[in-house]
Amino acid sequence: MKQIFKEVLEELLQVFQGRTLDVLIPPILFFVLLRWFDLGIALIGSLVLSSLFLAHRLYKQDNLVYAIGGFVGVLFASLMTFVSNNASNFFLPDVIGTSLLVIATTVSLLTKRPIAAYVSHLTRGWDYSWFKRDDVRPAYMEVSVFWLGFFVLRLGVELYLYFTSTVADLVIANVVLGLPLTIGVLVISYIYGIYRLRRLGGPGIDEYSSGATPPYRGQTRGF
Asked: Considering the entire predicted model, what is its pTM?
């Protein structure tokens, strides 16, 4: 058990590596500035911070996914907020983004191309044909079902808060539903996914790549 939690921690560090700050911090700054200044200052401050994150990633030649996602999200949210003059609209992209995740995950399950497999393929670079095996794919299908439940729950909470709550409530929900809950989902997904792959009895990705024959050792690290 100690070993599995060590693996989970290393996997989480590999996934995040501090990049989620690019997405989480601008909304918090927006709320802080809104408490002391007007809406325009709050929008400008969050845009400037997001731009600095993006510039830093460009300078360091680092992974730009989170920085670009954060900047585009803040820019879109700022435009929506400015046009409507409603501070709550700053968090509208979160609602839209979660809605798209619900749709994408549902489609991936209906087509038997689980989104969890695509995420693993893109982040790890593993041969996608391995994910299609009958003794591998069920694990990723089941984890994708779990993700869908999480996305639906998150969307329900976001919609409720968006229509009924204050900006302060939205900020708190944005933080809680972001990194902390995502970490919990990833930990459960990793532990269950590894367990399920071993139960299915298929080859590990290294065995598949090397053309190994049964009996397989199975996947021992990474999901």
From this structure: 0.71
Distance, CA of 23 to CA of 5 (rounded, Å): 26
> Containing domain of residue 61, as a range?
2-210
Of 101, 97, 100, the closest CA to residue 150 belongs to 101
**Cβ within 8 Å of residue 24, ≥6 positions away:** 174, 175, 178, 179
Q: pLDDT: is 158 or 32 the higher one?
A: 158
Is position 39 within any domain?
A: yes
Give me 200's structure tokens.
Answer: 């299915």
- The answer to whether position 26 is within a domain reads yes
What sign results for the dihedral spanned by CA atoms 32, 34, 37, 42?
positive
What total of structural domains would you count in the chain?
1
Residue 208 CA to residue 217 CA, distance in Å, equals 11
